[in-house]
Write a structure and sequence with these properties.
single chain; alpha/beta; 6-stranded parallel β-sheet; 17 strands
């Protein structure tokens, strides 16, 4: 499960396993090498940068590596994409700690969403061509400069969309749309509570709620983020750090709310259930309360587990409430995901949704990107850029940190400067 971001596509039938399972000899997800024919031997080797999770633990477990291999050989239905931007999701924070069950074991290239330009197409690819700008979904392996992926998991980008926006849409907005419209059946006049309202899913939920008339949005976030989320459409921002959000919501809406979207887990799930109106819907889509520092926190995990919501079917029936779980990673229906992506791109074209980009970090700055999200400093989406940082960009200051009242004790105590290392490897 993810806390703020739900992960992506479930492991698929046998013919699609190649998307996240590297050849036996490969150390991590890499574009498939071509055969050893004379023609292939004359081809210029492909060199590319990638971020590799080398083991479970802190920020230092994600290494920047430069790999060199033969040109990839595309199979039918595949395309080669030059990646321009990648999304950082809460699932990657979990994955780095060994808490994301769908991620292959290290060493592995993480990353589930991105955008880029198609550089080559395989046989039977009719609706994509070299030069197309596309959004890309992948179960893992996105954090590298080049990627071989099924053409069915690429989506043409609108002309006005930037690569950063393209990388920010898939996971957050698929999660938000499916929860609101496929599960909760959001309709005019309803009320919604979204936790972590200043994160990627939070902004997506808020924007999608505005596509339905007269929807009231309650959003929890630290006080320093309230002005931004209110401008984004949150009707009632609540500082959960200094106030009891249940009491604050009851003051405004004594009967509670119609929909609760819970990425936290533990005791917050119980509170969410108590806030539901009759016929209301609680959707649990994460367990962010488990993540309290760089490394796995067994105490936090045990506390979250101990405080989880427990119900009998009789209690559920008598309460007239619905409890749902959502995990994008376990949805096997690619047609559903494809239709939803097309709907989201249509909404983007109409100006009804637009990702808020918090910050962009080059691959060599991945530690800073992880810190910004893990310490809850981001307001919107954190983006990773595969391209090497130019000399003039190195002179620019880092993004301004948000007043960070949300740092966990573990993060506050960790003063050690972490860096990525660039490793030259050759397959």
């Amino acid at each position: 499960m993810s806390g703020e971001e739900a992960p992506t596509l479930q492991q698929q039938p046998e013919q699609e396993k190649k998307l996240d399972e590297p050849p036996p000899a490969a150390a991590s997800d890499s574009p498939r090498e071509s055969g050893s024919s004379p023609a292939a031997a004359e081809e210029k080797p492909l060199s590319f940068r990638s971020l590799v999770l080398t083991g479970y633990g802190g920020y230092d477990k994600v290494k920047l590596q430069v790999k060199t291999q033969k040109q990839p050989q595309l199979e039918a239905g595949e395309v080669l994409v030059r990646v321009k931007a990648c999304g950082l999701n809460f699932a990657e924070l979990l994955g780095r700690q060994g808490l994301y069950e769908l991620l292959p074991a290290p060493p592995v290239v993480m990353g589930m969403e991105g955008s880029g330009v198609i550089e080559a197409v395989g046989e039977d690819v009719k609706d994509r061509k070299v030069g197309d700008r596309v959004i890309v979904l992948s179960r893992s392996g996105m954090w590298q400069e080049v990627l071989v992926v099924s053409a069915n998991l690429t989506f043409p980008m609108p002309e006005q969309m930037s690569f950063e926006e393209g990388a920010a849409i898939p996971i957050n907005y698929l999660t938000a749309y499916m929860m609101l419209f496929e599960m909760a059946n959001l309709r005019p006049g309803k009320s919604v509570l979204i936790h972590m309202a200043a994160g990627g899913v939070g902004f997506a939920v808020t924007q999608l709620c505005q596509t339905v008339p007269d929807v009231t949005v309650f959003g929890t976030a630290s006080a320093s983020k309230h002005e931004t989320i209110a401008q984004g459409g949150v009707t009632h921002p609540i500082d959960y750090r200094t106030k009891d959000y249940v009491e604050e919501i009851r003051k405004i809406s004594p009967k509670g709310v119609d929909i609760v979207l819970d990425p936290l887990g533990g005791s917050d799930t119980q509170k969410g259930f108590s806030l539901l109106k009759p016929l209301g819907t609680l959707i649990v889509f994460g367990a962010a309360n488990c993540v309290t520092g760089q490394k796995k926190n067994l105490l936090a995990m045990a506390k979250t587990w101990y405080n989880q919501l427990s119900l009998t079917t009789l209690k559920l029936m008598q309460s007239n409430k619905a409890v749902c779980g959502f995990h994008l990673g376990y949805i096997p229906d690619e047609q559903l995901i494809g239709r939803t992506m097309l709907k989201l791109l249509e909404l983007y074209g109409q100006g009804k949704i637009k990702p808020r980009i918090d910050s962009c970090y080059h691959f060599e700055e991945v530690t800073d990107a992880f810190k910004r999200m893990q310490e809850r400093q981001n307001i919107g989406k954190v983006i990773l850029l595969p391209e090497a940082k130019k000399e003039e960009e190195k002179q620019k200051p880092s993004p301004e940190p948000v007043e960070n009242v949300e740092k966990t004790e573990a993060a506050v105590n960790d003063k050690k400067k972490e860096t990525t290392e660039e490793v030259k490897s050759e397959d």
